[in-house]
Each structure stands twice: as structure tokens, then as C-alpha cells.
Design a protein that fits this description.
The N and C termini lie far apart (63 Å). The protein contains 13 helices and twelve strands. The chain has a six-stranded parallel sheet with strand order 2-1-3-4-5-11, with helices on both faces. Helix 5 (72-87) crosses helix 13 (289-304) and helix 10 packs across helix 11. By secondary structure, it is of the alpha/beta class. The chain has three domains: 4-47, Orthogonal Bundle (434 Repressor (Amino-terminal Domain)), CATH 1.10.260; 61-153 and 289-315, Rossmann fold (3-Layer(aba) Sandwich), CATH 3.40.50.2300; 156-287, Rossmann fold.
């Protein structure tokens, strides 16, 4: 395996000069850069990133832990986090926790061992003390863990208001809200809080259903929605906590012969691309995934550089009305 010394001998310069090129420090002529990179390619030299990070005390790697990369919302957020990390000279180390507490702990230990400069947490299964003991710059997504760890969230309460008011405005008389599990300490619960306040103030008949604690189970969604219409066949409006669940409601309406939006009106949440690709298109509360990704990277880098950052970061949502209402 080639070493820096081999590169230096090949180019005819000192090891220090090659090191300056690799670390992009000090004055380096374009000619020297070209010769070093050509020699690296010819000798198939692979820098030892862990060793370099120990020397520089900076790896330019950000860790990202999310619950499920296959979920379209988290897939979109991950895309933008990687995009803005790369634009700022950072690489991303992606971890898929599947909402497994042990797996999340193992990933955190791995990220610390890999000398990452900071961690963006989109999965939150552990106790508060487990997060505060990490001792790295951190940003959390959609959960306020402590007063000291910055978090980013869309305006969940406003989203719940927009969705519920739209269904009432469209004439719905009995509205179902299919929420995420309300036992989890997530800011997404504010969607449910807004739904309850609006629905009770307007005196509208309603039901609330919760998904399971254990992640994003599409088979469970199918069973939940099927049972909902069996037990409450007079439901004429549904506010789903994700576009994936809204799509399942749409599928079940088709199966049992209910027309959308004539018989049942549906509002989803997230604003993923799926919602506009199916027919009828799903009305949704769009979360600003691009802005979430950009802000997550910005807050991490500012902390890495020793700057103070705001702890609460709430981004606006937008109602996108399509054919399902």
C-alpha cells in the first residue's frame, strides 16, 4: 500500500509538501497539486481519513441518524442534508435506526469512534441523559430533548389547524384524525393538539386513531384504515399524519367503493412527491424538507466552529390543495 513518502519520492518533493496538498494548507502551487494528485492516482494512494482527522482534530464528517431511510419524507430530508453538507465541504455518515433503541446507541458509539464532527438526530428512542452525554455538536429533528440541544421542526400546530379547518370548510361532518403514536415525545403531536382544539371549538363529530410505536408499518396502516371504515362507515373526512397514510386511506376508499372527494375528503401531511403522482392527487400540509436539510447542516457547522446557535428553529408549513379535497 502506497504511503505519503512514496508520493513524495514520485513527485520529487518533501513529505511536508505532499501533506500540505492533502490537507489543503499553506501556499500550494497548482502545478504541485496536479503532480501530487497524478501520483496518488498512479500509485492508488488512499488517505487514512481517521488518522488525518486525529491529527487535524476535525474529520469534516457529519453523522445523520434517521428512523427509516425508505420512508419518502426522511429520504427527501436526507437528500438535502447530504447536498448542503457536501456544498460546505462535509461528508455524511448515514445511520438507519429503524426506531430500535439498542441500534441507535450502537450507531452513536460508531459515529463517536469515527471522529465525526457533529450529529444530526432524526431518530429519538433513547433517554434524555443518553443524548446529553454525547458531548458533540448536535441538532435534533422534530424533537426538543433539552433546553441546550438545538432542534428543528416545521410548524406542526399550524399544519394541524390548516388541515382540520380545510376539511370543515369543505363540509365534512365526521372527521377522523390518524395520528402518529401519541406516547412518543415528538413535536408532531402538536398536529393532534391543533386538530382537537379546532374540532372541539367547531363542535364537529370526530375520532382519533394512533399508529403503533414500532416504526412505519405499512401493513398496520392497511389494517388500521380498514377497521376505521368498518366501525365508522359515516366518516367523510380524514386528516392523516403522513401522505403515506393518506395514500392508504385513498386505496381503502377505492376498495370499498367510496368516491374521493365526493364521499370522503382526505388531507395528508409532509408534501412528499408521491402525493402528486397518484390519482386523485392528495391534498397535503407540506413540510419544507429543503429548508430543514439546509438549516440542519448550518446549525451543525456553526456549532463545530464554536458559535452559539438558536435552540428553537420552527419553519413554516404550506397547505397544498389537490383533488382529494
Amino acid at each position: 500500500m502506497a504511503t505519503i513518502k512514496d508520493i513524495a519520492e514520485k513527485v520529487g518533493v518533501t513529505v511536508t509538501s505532499v501533506s500540505r496538498v492533502l490537507n489543503n494548507r499553506g501556499y500550494i502551487s497548482e502545478m504541485l497539486k496536479k503532480k501530487v494528485h497524478e501520483a496518488m492516482e498512479e500509485l492508488n494512494y488512499q488517505p487514512n481519513e481517521v488518522a488525518r482527522s486525529l491529527i487535524r482534530k476535525k474529520s469534516n464528517i457529519i453523522g445523520l441518524i434517521i428512523p427509516d431511510v425508505s420512508h419518502p419524507f426522511f429520504g427527501e430530508v436526507t437528500y438535502y442534508i447530504e447536498y448542503y453538507a457536501d456544498k460546505n465541504g462535509y461528508k455524511l455518515l448515514l445511520c438507519n435506526s429503524k426506531l430500535n433503541k439498542l441500534k441507535e446507541k450502537e450507531y452513536i458509539n460508531m459515529l463517536k469512534g469515527s471522529q465525526v464532527d457533529g450529529i444530526i438526530m432524526g431518530s429519538h428512542t433513547m433517554d434524555t441523559k443518553d443524548y446529553t452525554s454525547i458531548k458533540l455538536p448536535m441538532v435534533t429533528l422534530d424533537r426538543q430533548i433539552t433546553d441546550t440541544i438545538p432542534y428543528i421542526s416545521s410548524d406542526n400546530y399550524k399544519g394541524g389547524e390548516l388541515a382540520t379547518n380545510l376539511l370543515i370548510k369543505k363540509g365534512c361532518k365526521k372527521i377522523a384524525h390518524i395520528s402518529g403514536n401519541l406516547h412518543l415525545n415528538l413535536l408532531a403531536k402538536l398536529r393532534h393538539d391543533a386538530f382537537k382544539k379546532v374540532i372541539l371549538n367547531k363542535g364537529i363529530e370526530h375520532i382519533v386513531l394512533q399508529t403503533d410505536l414500532n416504526g412505519f408499518n405499512y401493513d398496520e396502516y392497511e389494517q388500521l384504515v380498514s377497521a376505521m371504515f368498518q366501525e365508522h362507515p359515516d366518516i367523510d373526512g380524514v386528516f392523516a399524519s403522513s401522505d403515506i397514510i393518506a395514500a392508504q386511506v385513498l386505496k381503502e376508499c377505492y376498495r370499498i367503493g367510496k368516491s374521493v372527494p365526493q364521499d370522503v375528503k382526505i388531507v395528508g401531511y409532509d408534501g412528499i412527491q408521491l402525493g402528486q403522482l397518484i390519482t386523485p392527487g392528495i391534498t397535503t400540509i407540506k413540510q419544507p424538507t429543503k429548508d430543514i436539510g439546509k438549516m440542519a447542516v448550518s446549525l451543525i457547522i456553526e456549532q463545530i466552529e464554536g458559535e452559539d446557535v438558536p435552540k428553537e428553529n420552527i419553519l413554516p408549513v404550506k397547505l397544498i390543495e389537490r383533488q382529494s379535497t
